[in-house]
Design brief:
Elements (H helix, E strand, L loop, with lengths): L1 H53 L3 H4 L14 H7 L4 H31 L6 H13 L4 H10 L17 H12 L3 H9 L4 H12 L1 H17 L2 H6 L9 H27 L7 H34 L4
Helix pairs in contact: 1-13, 3-13, 4-7, 4-10, 4-12, 7-10, 7-13, 8-9, 10-13, 12-13
InterPro entries: MetI-like (IPR000515), MetI-like_sf (IPR035906)
Subcellular location: Cell membrane
Pfam family, one: BPD_transp_1
Length: about 325
């Protein structure tokens, strides 16, 4: 009897607690699904709305009221953008600077991060502090321009690559990831006679693929979206212009031409507005965002792992 009583007293509370926990889990799941659905709608709506505006006739877009679907379908906005003669060479330059800049930055940042992560390196604290100071103190626009000019990088493709070859934020992320790698793995390579370069390339580099993919995504987005450096250093050289800078010029031109067309249409002459600043802005956003949207799914699993593991000390 004592055994049966004790069994009942121990199993029944557990049974009731499981029921309560199961009901609580169901409530949590429902709330979680509702919240995530709302978050998905809030996140996707601006992009889908922009896509709808870009595929809508400009004369109709001015009226407003476009949400998730074009009211008057038209491809004139994309024709207007891609009819620019410089857009294709600018796209090639943007792809080239994104690929080359990402590879060089990731490789250089990884090597420096491995160096300052080694406890036997005497100057690692001093160099780390020197790098971090540059995140808070900047020489300013004019000194930077004078430095680029003295380095002979004006009207040069390499002005897109060398000034940002080491990113301090990327450096800290990679160093944190390397520091939480098992020291025994690195020591085993040295026991086998591997030097610093061989240890880095054969052991550390393969283990850092998640965080390197994360840094590569950060760098690629920066390189692809950058246009101000083109304006400062290569605005006089059309052959070195990038897609973002050309789209910026198209938008500025559309502001002038569309104002004239709108005034002509309002005068009762019956002119039709083919493009408008609103439609061109939406088209530019889609054209600039699509390549990053295509690349991101291939790096997503590495991106999540790199951010979570790199920020936790083992």
């Amino acid at each position: 009897m004592a055994n049966s009583t004790s069994t009942t007293s121990t199993t029944q509370p557990g049974r009731y607690s499981r029921r309560g926990s199961s009901a609580g889990d169901r409530v949590f799941d429902i709330v979680n699904y509702i919240f995530l659905t709302c978050l998905m709608i809030v996140t996707l709506y601006p992009f889908l709305n922009t896509l709808a505006v870009s595929l809508n006739a400009a004369s109709d877009s001015i009226k407003g009221g476009i949400h998730l679907w074009p009211r008057v379908f038209s491809a004139e906005n994309y024709k207007f953008v891609f009819n620019e003669a410089t857009i294709y060479n600018a796209t090639f330059i943007s792809v080239l600077r994104t690929v080359l800049g990402t590879v060089v930055t990731v490789f250089a940042s990884a090597m420096v991060a491995y160096t300052i992560s080694r406890p036997e390196y005497v100057l690692r604290k001093f160099i780390t502090i020197a790098f971090i100071i540059t995140m808070y103190i900047n020489g300013g626009l004019i000194p930077n321009y004078l430095l680029i000019r003295d380095l002979g990088l004006i009207n040069s493709f390499w002005v897109y690559i060398w000034p940002g070859v080491i990113g301090v934020f990327n450096l800290i992320i990679i160093r944190s990831f390397i520091e939480q790698l098992p020291e025994s793995v690195i020591e085993s390579g040295r026991i086998d006679g591997a030097g610093d370069f061989r240890t880095f390339f054969n052991i550390v580099f393969p283990l850092c693929l998640p965080v390197l993919a994360t840094v590569a995504l950060f760098t690629a987005v920066y390189q692809w979206n950058s246009w101000f450096d083109v304006f400062l250093y290569n605005s006089s050289n059309v052959k070195l212009s990038t897609l973002q800078y050309e789209l910026q010029k198209i938008l500025q031109n559309s502001n002038t031409t569309s104002s004239a067309e709108t005034a002509f249409a309002n005068s009762g002459s019956g002119a039709s507005i083919k493009v408008s600043p609103l439609s061109i802005r939406a088209t530019m956003t889609i054209v600039a965002a699509v390549p990053m949207i295509i690349v991101y799914p291939f790096l997503q699993k590495y991106f999540v792992k790199g951010m979570t593991v790199g920020g936790v000390k083992g």
